[in-house]
Protein: Translation factor GUF1 homolog, mitochondrial
Amino acid sequence: FPSEKIRNFSIIAHIDHGKSTLADRLMELTGTIKKGHGQPQYLDKLQVERERGITVKAQTATMFYENKVKDEEASGFLLNLIDTPGHVDFSYEVSRSLSACQGALLVVDAAQGVQAQTVANFYLAFESNLTIVPVINKIDQPTADPDRVKAQLKSMFDLSPDDVLLVSAKTGLGLEYVLPAVIERIPPPPGISDSPLRMLLFDSFFNEYKGVICYVSVVDGMLSKGDKVSFAASGMRTTKEARIGDTIYRTKTTVEPLPGFKPVRHMVFSGVYPADGSGFEALSHALEKLTCNDASVSVAKETSTALGMGFRCGFLGLLHMDVFHQRLEQEYGTQVISTIPTVPYTFEYSDGSKLKVQNPASLPSNPKYRVIASWEPTVIATIILPSEYVGAVINLCADRRGQQLEYTFIDAQRVFLKYQLPLREIVVDFYDELKSVTSGYASFDYEDAEYQTSDLVKLDILLNGQAVDALATIVHKQKAYRVGKELVEKLKSYIERQMFEVMIQASIGSKIIARDTISAMRKNVLAKCYGGDITRKKKLLEKQKEGKKRMKRVGSVDIPHEAFQQILKVS
Ligand code: GTP
Structure:
């Protein structure tokens, strides 16, 4: 295909505005997939994506299209479509995919209008110099108000109402104008075809049968079947070596490597341990396989006194972490215990030394030198919401130590807020809270911002006087008492009564800030059937053994693994 017959484009949108449905329709229209093939959302391939109805990994499809409207005698066009994830955690994936494109369809729901990720995705595309084709989708809905959405697109992004396409990916209305607009408005790839070959590796995944599969965009030159290629930065035998952003060139030629991508920034860290002690090897194997498919996760071995041998994993965000855990279980059958997620902190001591902390347990509880400063990462959050909820959201942001940067009206009923917030405050349940105080009408997105100084302390949890490393957390001093109290209460509700009294304490350094006790159990499990029915006794013992498997013994106290997970919710 000559490059003037090629269009590389992406579909970007706020979550649920219909990207994947639109992608499916376009593929049907071009005969790439059969109509009504029975498997909705062809490009959403992972089981977790189907279950959650979200796109996690960008997917690519190549379509052939005869553009009969414009170019009668002309041959077909080659259209490369990249479907991208909509959620904030995956914006890194979005920006990588965009680098392979010259244009993007910006899809907006006709009833919901511009939302937080519409804004974020628009700017990602705009900064990559892409031609933006605005598409208002779901015009079949009774509550659709395309004129209002057109006005929002004009006021927010200066997109002309005349350029907006109106479609329904569901009924097919207006779809025939989408691909002609792609061909007319989006420029062909700019590369020079008679220059030496340069390709940008923008994504890769691991296929059980075929091995590593790379997605590349040909930046310069031509590639033919049978050509031998080399990688500028690595040798490439595994996906780990298939470094995203690497330049691929024809073997034995010399080329200037392409700029590549900025490295991934891990925002959330958590320990991942096998739920039963024996599963370390299996977990290790599963992690290796899974990171082949998701190279944006970092993995390092660590050991915990409470949980044994495991790994410290770094994620792009909390949803990314959840999805990763779900994939570990579903695709590899591994049961894991994950520890309290933490963001990366930096501490400075009076001797001038600095400590970067990805695991709260690694921060000394009683350090030799005094902490003179500590820093935590922040984000710039964008929130779009109906104006009647503004008060509640401002309160929520204040409670989360946020600082207001902007407050504007998008139109008569909708407000655009910008806040700088500590990442720690939004990592766990901010989005849930936001949805609950706005009855689900607010949308939210964030981007990394700089570290800021903060008054941070380590909070230890002790069981019968012994600190449980996997339950340690780092909190803002002002919140330490509240969090300590809540952690103790939560733990009390999860730990079953033992044969002896269990004391639960929260401490900062050597100071106890909260405590409670679980009184001793009076009878053991067999007490009531001594001398009784032997099968019943056996059954009880079995049951007890089953329960034990899912416990972690800390000192002499058994902690059910739900406790480790439930405790995540306290912040
Ligand atoms: P993510 O991949 O999670 O970011 O979502 P998405 O933007 O790909 O949205 P998706 O295509 O999964 O569509 C979300 C929901 O909207 C689905 O239930 C679709 O059936 C529905 N939907 C998509 N297009 C239309 C449309 O034109 N009209 C109506 N009424 N519903 C639509």
